[in-house]
Write a structure and sequence with these properties.
Strand content of chain A: 5-15%
Structural class of chain B: alpha+beta
Order of helices and strands of chain A: HEHHEEH
Radius of gyration of chain A: 16 Å
Strand content of chain B: 5-15%
Radius of gyration of chain B: 38 Å
Number of strands of chain B: 22
Number of strands of chain A: 3
Largest sheet of chain B: 6 strands, mixed, barrel
Structural class of chain A: alpha+beta
Strand order of the largest sheet of chain A: 1-3-2
Shape of chain A: globular
Number of helices of chain B: 29
Oligomer: heterodimer
Shape of chain B: globular
Largest sheet of chain A: 3 strands, antiparallel
Chain lengths: 111, 920
């Protein structure tokens, strides 16, 4: 896809938390992982990603730590906190319910 | 609790602001490098890879901004930046900043000075331990000696106090004290220096322990000292120790003579403790109640310590933990009723007695009567200074508006570049806050000077009132809170107005010369200022006229070249028998002093503050009329020395002795009231019931003289010679007669330097008897003027404030007029080019200025009438709506306005049409 799909802010938060839940990642890694898993559909711009990361950090759902990356360069890694994990689980449940409902509507309405 | 984490995060990043920014930069850099790597891996060369990566990145700065936004710290960053910007702006236009800061300093400082006084007098709790537990029995100011029923009992007898203390379990402690400190004669034992007048107060043994006062030296008075037969001890106040004894450590254990009796100073109270009430003259010494007979026994009634029916003590106590005020009050009222019924000598019918009650009031500020009395005056002062601050704020707002108009282009650019209006308003407010802060700082200096000036004005004879001009934290807080409010008041409206408007139009210069939308608020502010200045001006006029009316009325005596010496022979231990010799000695000695042209003496002199009045009996007048008159005892030559004219008959002279026929001299009002036109000379009168109607023969009539109440016409009054006594039935009346034969004031006519004569007089008296207490020496004029201190203060302060307000209004008028002339330059040029004379232009501008004044007066007059209606009781000889005063205020305002507008008007008249028309 040439043009990245617009994502709602809340949805982006959810995606970032999901990615980071697997393992701590730096900003670049998070963007790459999102691209990979979504099959190139979701391409987050840096201008959207970093503010979102800082917002999540302020709200206490992720924690940041500087660590060594490949080639011994320093990068800032983000990891999920306990509150973040709880938030992720509840939001994921909500999202699944929502998407099922939307699919139902689209399925029947588009007949 | 997410919000706590959020706040913690914000605080952390706030403290590491720079590091956070640097971290973000490294993060972004790392991301960029990885993107470049990926691009190279995807097949681009180094240059293309970098370009593609950068393009995708977008604006670094915007990312930084957004990230910062998310960090939630923009408010702090922006405020810091705005403050720095405001400071830079202030430096660039120092004149503007100086005017603003100065006006604020004056306005806030004046308020803070008055607040310092008000706080100490009306708000501050006593400097004792746990003042909130203290309660007072009673709510009235019943000082100082009462024999009958009181209604709301607020002053108590010693035996009743003892009963209350023993039998009221709701109070864990209770202490009584003399209602007011009394003047005493004090001498350091063994010192040849003459006696000094100091304030002393009798207090119960547990006074210091109940208040929890720590001693600065030695010990306090204890219950062991407050027993009959205990050694005579006294405690000194810290202030007296500092002022009179220079903190001499040997004071503990030193002997002093109080009212002729020897006492040992056993301690000095803590610094800052001034007793149980705010007083301009606080106690210098405290003595145990049991010494009342020794120290006060020379009073009219003798000792009252054991009298159940003479009330002279105020009582305060600490409420026991768990007891309520209602319980305590119920209990003491029961005790009061029992006491009154078992002591019928106090008097009163059954119904009257049942109405007697005690109100238990909070005592955290002690006994509040003195402070409360001055409250009215303080509120008036607050009103005046509040007006001044408002005027200052209006002025500053106008200045800010004008500056905003001047920077219209700049603001337009900011708006066009995407600044939000809220952001710009915040910026303007930050600037106001900086100015207000600077103004608040400067105000502290003004407040310090102002408080000292206020103290001098309020207590002109000097005072030991416990007020420190170096404000407390409360005063500081008040000053800055006021500055903050002022910043909002003068900053908000200009900020709002200046950030309005169409950027494009402003940038193109449209609107210049046409109606400026923000000129209306500016004019409104100006009119508001003029109106407030008018109110202040008319107030000043009223107060000044009142003072003049009071001081220049016909008093019935002459103050020119006269001096008054107040003495107290009773405190020096003179007995009734010794008085004759004393009076002779004083007359002879003082008439020999250089510069003294005449000597006389009296029980009290005019406008000293005393007034002795009694029921009298007049020859031939039916009894039962409730006739009463003032009276005085005077020595030979008295009327000549004080300058009261003798109208008929003769004055009291040296021939009037104890052995000669009893005579009296009366004043015109007495003749009018009691003799209705009949010649009184040869008739008789006396003090008391009709059996005394023939005691004294009237031998002379003097003109009316005002002795105490300057705002009322003279009272009926008669004058008796010394030592011409009469028999009385009651002990009271006899005691009063004895007391009346003591000299209170020596009156002198003198010429030459007042200071030298005073020194000589003091020396002569001191040589004669160093124990004779000279309370005060001052000129008759000073004595008179001391009665009008409050009026003088108001007149002076309101005049000063009016002058300041006029100055501010003049600055405002000048500024607005000058600006409008600039605005209308092209129009004026056109007029002149079309033939209008320069004089007409001048008059046009000035007419506009006068229009402002008229508008201001139109609002100001009703405002002034409303505001000064509250002061009607204070005025003398005129009403709040006095036309002369109002007309005067109008005239002054018009004159100031014309002067303020003259320069701009002149400039307008000198406009060169050619340049004006070319002026875009």
């Amino acid at each position: 896809m040439s043009k990245p799909t617009d994502l709602l802010q809340g949805t982006l938060d959810l995606l970032i938390l999901r990615v980071v839940a697997l393992e701590p990642l730096h900003g670049w890694g998070i963007a790459q992982r999102l691209r990979q898993i979504s099959g190139d559909v979701l391409q987050v711009r840096q201008g959207t990603l970093y503010p979102a990361l800082h917002r999540l950090e302020r709200q206490g759902w992720i924690r940041a730590k500087w660590g060594d990356s490949d080639n011994n360069r320093k990068a800032k890694y983000y990891a999920l906190t306990r509150e973040g994990r709880k938030y992720l689980e509840s939001e994921q449940t909500n999202w699944e319910r929502l998407s099922v409902a939307i699919n139902l509507v689209l399925g029947t309405a588009g007949e | 609790m997410r919000w706590t984490k959020s706040i913690a995060y914000r605080l952390r990043t706030l403290l590491r602001v720079n590091r956070a920014d640097a971290e973000l930069d490294s993060e972004l850099h790392y991301h960029l490098e990885k993107q470049i790597e990926a691009n190279i891996a995807a097949g681009m060369n180094a240059g293309e890879a970098r370009e593609a990566a950068l393009r995708e990145f977008g604006g670094m700065e915007q990312i930084r901004e957004e990230a910062r936004d998310e960090r939630g710290l923009n408010l702090f960053y922006d405020f810091g930046r705005d403050v720095r910007l405001a400071i830079r702006q202030m430096r660039r236009s120092p004149g503007f900043a100086a005017v603003v800061v100065l006006s604020l300093a004056l306005g806030i400082g004046a308020n803070a000075a008055i607040f310092t006084l008000a706080h100490a007098m009306l708000m501050e709790p006593l400097p004792v331990s746990h003042p909130e537990q203290l309660y007072r029995l009673g709510d009235r100011d019943n000082c100082c000696l009462i024999g009958g029923l009181q209604g709301s009992y607020s002053i108590f007898s010693y035996p009743f106090y003892l009963l209350l203390r023993e039998q009221t379990p709701q109070f864990s402690e209770m202490a009584a004290f003399e209602a007011e400190p009394q003047t005493m004669s004090v001498r350091r034992s063994g010192s040849p220096a003459p006696a000094q007048a100091r304030q002393g107060q009798l207090v119960a043994g547990n006074y210091f322990s109940m208040f929890g006062v720590v001693m600065a030296a030695g010990r306090g008075i204890t219950p062991a000292d407050d027993r009959p037969g205990a050694a005579p001890v006294a405690v000194m106040s810290y202030r007296a120790w500092e002022q009179d004894y220079a903190l001499d450590p040997t004071i503990v254990g030193a002997n002093v003579t109080l009212n002729g009796a020897a006492f040992t100073v056993v301690g000095v109270a803590a610094r800052g403790f001034f007793g149980e009430a705010f007083r301009p003259q606080p106690a210098d010494f405290w003595m145990p109640l049991s010494y009342e007979p020794t120290l006060r026994g020379a009073g009219i009634l003798g000792s009252v310590l054991d009298r159940a029916d003479e009330c002279w003590l105020y009582v305060m106590g600490r409420l026991r933990a768990g007891a309520t005020v209602a319980e305590a009050q119920a209990r003491v009222n029961v005790e009061l009723q029992q006491w009154l019924t078992s002591h019928p000598e106090i008097g009163g019918s059954r119904k009257e007695v049942s109405q007697q009650h005690i109100v238990v009031t909070p005592g955290n500020r002690g006994v509040t009567s003195v402070g409360d009395q001055m409250a009215g005056g303080l509120y008036l002062l607050f009103g005046i200074s509040g007006l001044l601050l408002l005027i200052a704020c209006a002025n500053i707002a106008n200045l800010l508006l004008a500056r905003g108009i001047a920077r219209r282009g700049h603001t337009a650019v900011q708006l066009a570049l995407g600044a939000s209006r809220g952001r710009l308003v915040r910026q303007a407010l930050a600037g106001s806050a900086v100015l207000a802060f600077a103004g608040g700082l400067a105000a502290l200096f003004v407040a310090y000077a102002g408080t000292r000036a206020l103290l001098l004005l309020t207590f002109p004879g000097g005072t030991n009132a416990p007020i420190t001009p170096v404000g407390s934290r409360t005063v500081l807080g008040f000053a800055f809170a006021l500055a903050f409010v002022a910043a909002l008041v003068f900053g908000l409206v200009p900020a709002w107005l200046n950030t309005r408007g169409d950027p494009a139009a402003s940038l193109h210069g449209a609107g210049r010369g046409a109606r400026d939308p923000s000129s209306f608020p500016s004019k409104l502010l100006l009119v508001f200022q003029v109106a407030l200045s008018f109110i202040l001006l008319s107030g000043a006029g009223l107060f000044t006229a009142t003072l003049r009316n009071l001081e220049e009325q016909r008093f019935g005596f002459q103050t020119q070249g006269r001096m008054m010496v107040q003495v107290d022979p009773a405190l020096a231990g003179y007995s009734r028998e010794q008085l004759y010799g004393l009076n002779q000695e004083i007359s002879e000695r003082l008439s020999r002093v250089r510069g003294v042209a005449g000597v006389s003496f009296s029980l009290y002199s005019p406008m000293e503050g005393h007034n002795w009045a009694d029921d009298i009996a007049v020859e031939g007048r039916p009894p039962g009329y409730g006739d009463s008159s003032s009276w005085d005892r005077v020595g030979p030559n008295y009327f000549e020395v004080v300058g009261t004219r003798v109208l008929r008959g003769r004055a009291i002279g040296p021939e009037d002795t104890a052995a000669s026929p009893h005579v009296a001299v009366v004043n015109e009002t007495l003749v009018r009231n009691f003799f209705s036109g009949v010649e009184p000379i040869g008739k008789h009168l006396g003090i008391g019931d009709k059996s005394h109607g023939y005691d004294y023969e009237i031998v002379g009539v003097v003109e009316d003289a005002i002795y105490k109440y300057a705002r009322k016409p003279a009272r009926p009054m008669f004058f008796l010679p010394y030592f011409q006594d009469v028999d009385y039935d009651t002990a009271n009346a006899r005691a009063i007669q004895v007391r009346s034969n003591y000299i209170g004031t020596i009156a002198l006519r003198y010429s030459g330097a007042e200071g030298e004569v005073e020194q000589a007089v003091r020396r002569s008296l001191g040589e004669f008897d160093p124990n004779l207490l000279v309370l005060r020496v001052r000129t008759f004029d000073e004595q008179l003027r001391a009665n009008f201190t409050q009026e003088r203060n108001f007149a002076g302060l309101s005049t000063v404030f009016s002058a300041l307000a006029l100055l501010l209004a003049a600055i405002g008028l000048y500024g607005v007029t000058a600006y409008r002339v600039v605005q209308r330059t092209s129009e004026i040029g056109l007029r002149i080019a079309l033939g209008s004379s320069r004089e007409r232009v001048l008059r046009m501008v000035l007419r506009e200025v006068l229009l402002f004044v008229l508008a201001g007066i139109a609002i100001g007059v009703p405002g002034s009438l409303a505001a000064t209606r509250a002061t009607a009781s204070f005025l003398f000889g005129l009403t709040p709506g006095d036309p002369a005063v109002l007309a005067g205020a109008v005239a002054v305002l018009a004159a100031v306005a014309l002067i303020a507008g003259f320069l701009p008007a002149l400039r307008a008249a000198r406009v060169d049409p050619m340049t004006a028309l070319r002026h875009e």
